[in-house]
Amino acid sequence: MKPQNLVEKFVKNADVHLEATVDERLLQRMLDAYNSAGSAGPARRHPDYWSLVFESRFVRLAAAAIIFLALIILIGEFGTLLTGGNVAWADVSQRFQFVPFFYVSIYMKEGTLAQPQQFELWMGKGGYIRMRVGPQVIFGRHGRVTHAFDVRRRSEAEVDPLAVDIIRMLATPDEFSFETVIQSISGGKLVDITPAMNTQAGIGKELVVFDAQSAVSPGWVRIYALRQSKLPVGVRIWDPAEGFVVDAIITYSKEQPAIFFDPHAFAANLNRSESETSLAYLFLKDPGGREVTPEEGPK
Amino acid sequence: MRVEDRLLVWRLNRGDATALSRVYEKYRVDLLRLALSLLNNPATAEDVVQDVFVRFAGSARVFRLTGSLKGYLATCVANGARNALKASRLRQADRVDEAMELAADGDGPEHGLMCSEQFHRVSRALEELPAEQREVVTLHLYGDLPFREIAGWQKTSIKTVQSRYHYGLDKLRSLLNGEVTE
């Protein structure tokens, strides 16, 4: 590491902290200030996750990713939205909660002809997470990023802020709930559109499709789940006005070995001769238990 | 712009007070370090940071986030520190070490700021820098402010700010000689 970077790191790591009682007092003062300002006038009451996505080009992809994650990862709250006879959603959510491992690949693009950006996420037992965002491989646990590596530079890296936010959100489902997202997008309406989607096809027997329609734009969120296993397998967020799309594919395969989530094992291999691809997927096993990196493939 | 910050502000705009604690938890340490580095007085630094958070909470329902939330809060802290210095409530003698000893003795029941040994060393080294360099280094490292915004705040050019930063870091490296290792 360069001397200047070492000084920056040393300065940034110099810690201070406040006594807990002071924290509590200050938080109470903040709350009082917030509440007293609220009594002076009404808060704005018309927010929408959809408008958040389209508020700024700079944040739209990242905001869409978070909406998406709220939709699939926090799917456990589906049941709270449902009243009456729509049992299917409750089943999907309950099933999803008991999945010990999954992998999701998310593609986002800004317009019809734009190139998609992709990021990948693996979740394992015990709160372990591994992500790949661009050239970064990021490790986290219980909502915190533990290590981030750049596979091009083959060194530790300053973590992509999007990954920090996503990993933290995964550990705080109470803050960014599915219910909040659906409420903000469609006023809480989640519609089973399977019959409309599949009037001619037998596929409707196996697939169930739900829509949440934006109240402020032609955009919608569509979620695909398997009828029998009751697992969500795909999500699409789409605004046809601009051709803005987020597509996600969810895979439930064999759980990855513990070493796959171990940043120290990864770091030990940083300077070996593997290609960038091999490094990005280091220790990843396919559902049959084989390594998936090119070095393992046919020569 | 941090997505989580945008979501937090969005929640605060719609009356969700629980987002306040997350904003506080997320940025209090960096803001305290920034204030302490600029003021060299724990009690005043804590007052400045508390004031910034309480003012933010008071305006959070109508707050419009146009850039980085951390950058906004850091600029507020830097302004508060400048005002505190201008008000001449600080004297050069109020150094971190002495004030920390007072705090350890239980003086000042309203305050509870504690520094690590590493922060003491950094703080002593930062004190040796000219004020403009210290501002640039701490605003950039603790406030995550880009040089462009620091230039606006210091009313100077980006090149000058970049020079101040590099000279500041060079001097810190020599002052912390032997302590900064990989």
Observed structural traits:
heterodimer, A: 299 residues, alpha+beta, outer membrane lipoprotein receptor (LolB), chain A, globular, B: 182 residues, mainly alpha, Rna Polymerase Sigma Factor, Chain: A
Topology:
The complex is a heterodimer of chains A (299) and B (182).
Chain A: H1 3-13, E1 16-18, H2 20-40, H3 49-55, H4 57-72, H5 78-81, H6 87-97, E2 102-109, E3 117-123, E4 128-133, E5 136-141, E6 144-150, E7 155-156, H7 161-170, H8 178-186, E8 191-192, H9 194-197, E9 207-213, E10 220-226, E11 232-239, E12 244-251, H10 263-268, H11 276-280
Antiparallel strand pairs in A: 2-3, 2-12, 3-4, 4-5, 5-6, 6-7, 8-9, 9-10, 10-11, 11-12
Helix pairs in contact in A: 3-4, 4-7
Chain B: H1 3-13, H2 18-39, H3 42-59, H4 69-86, H5 96-104, E1 113-115, H6 117-127, H7 131-141, H8 147-154, H9 158-175
Helix pairs in contact in B: 1-2, 2-3, 2-4, 2-7, 3-4, 7-9, 8-9
Q: Which range does the strand content of chain A fall in?
A: 15-25%
Distance between the termini of chain A: 36 Å
Computed Rg of chain A: 22 Å
Rg of chain B, nearest Å: 17 Å
Low-confidence stretches of chain A: 41-47, 76-87
- Helical element count of chain A? 11
The low-confidence runs of chain B, each spanning 5 or more residues with pLDDT under 50, are: 102-109
Mean pLDDT of chain A: 73
Order of helices and strands of chain A: HEHHHHHEEEEEEHHEHEEEEHH
Spatially, the strands of the biggest sheet of chain A line up as 7-6-5-4-3-2-12-11-10-9-8
The general outline of chain B is globular
User: What CATH architecture of chain B do you see?
Assistant: Orthogonal Bundle
Counting DSSP E segments of at least 2 residues, the number of strands of chain A comes to: 12
CATH topology of the largest domain in chain A: outer membrane lipoprotein receptor (LolB), chain A
Rough shape of chain A?
A: globular
Query: CATH H-level name of chain B... which superfamily?
Result: RNA polymerase sigma factor, region 2, helix turn helix motif
What's the total helix number of chain B?
9
Helix and strand element order of chain B:
HHHHHEHHHH
Largest sheet of chain B: none
CATH fold-level topology of chain B = Rna Polymerase Sigma Factor, Chain: A
